[in-house]
Amino acid sequence: MAPVRTLIVDDSASMRATLKRMLAQDPAIEVVGMAPEPFAAREMIKQLNPDVLTLDVEMPGMDGLSFLERIMRLRPMPVVMCSTLTARGAEVTIEALRLGAVDYVTKPSGTPEDIERDAVLLCEKVKAAARSVARAGPQRLPAQPTLAAGAVGDRIIALGSSTGGVEALFSLLPALPENCPPVLIVQHMPAAFTRNFAERLNGECRVQVVEATDGAPVLPGTVYIAPGGQRHMELRGGVRGHIKLREGDPVSGHRPSVDTLFHSVAPLGAAAVGVILTGMGADGAQGMLAMRRAGARTLGQSRETCVVWGMPRSAKELGAVEHEVGLSGMPEAILKACREKIGSV
Q1: pTM, whole model, 2 decimals?
Q2: Same fold across 4-130 and 149-339
Q3: Where does this one sit in the cell (predicted)?
Q4: What are the residue numbers of the active site?
Q5: What is the pLDDT of residues 12-58, one digit of tens each?
Q6: Among 37, 145, 291, 315, which residue's beta carbon has the most beta carbons within 10 A?
């Protein structure tokens, strides 16, 4: 298999050199060029036809977001953003993912061990990006009608996503009605990003979107985004229960983990709806299987509409996915499951 041809775009010469060294550790990746700013990058894209672009979010002349918007409009291609763990970095990175960037990495820093760990992650994400489907931003899905009152108070929706999930959630959540059942979401994301992500979504949705807090009651019409970082998110107390954020080791390689959330919702049986969206890896597959075995409705995003068909594929191969659904049909599929009488098949 030919190596992934990668173009690095960053205004810092030292950062370009660092990223090149990190990528050179993987024989499946070839750095074909490095550009100090977007105008040079535009010409190098034409000349070199790279498979993947790594793009700094803030550069002089034309910022990374403006360049990304042009790329996704004129020549959609897989882009991995290089971000900083700051409030500004979080805001810009989330907008980049909404515009169609496949994924992001934080700029390498720290000890040699930290750099080595960052290098492994960068290489994994660049290779995953090369296998992904590039799209020019989220689809605008039609708003779904208000649910009947009986479908609201006796359901919980649990959702997991990773690579490509930001774009997918910007499509899916605005389509949900204001009285939909509580939605608990684990989207793999650093701690510095999740609050900004929830606030951005809240501005575009009819439901209320918040970053989850420990002990918060789960209420209809509210979406709870698990905070990134050191704690898992679980449901306690049933459909009228509350959020529990707890310490613990990573599960399926992640903290918070989709598997942990799904396992906590599984005891609800048919009162739960599980949804697994685009993402790299297998987090959520075992938890969704537990949900399905307990009687929950379970939905997996279709391969054709995933940026990376990893998590849904793993769940499907385990037999955890009851129905595969394209992203455009996902809001109605979720609400259809919520409208079903508990105990129906």
Answers
A1: 0.91
A2: yes
A3: Cytoplasm
A4: 162, 188, 283
A5: 999 999 999 999 999 999 999 999 998 999 999 999 999 999 999 87
A6: 315
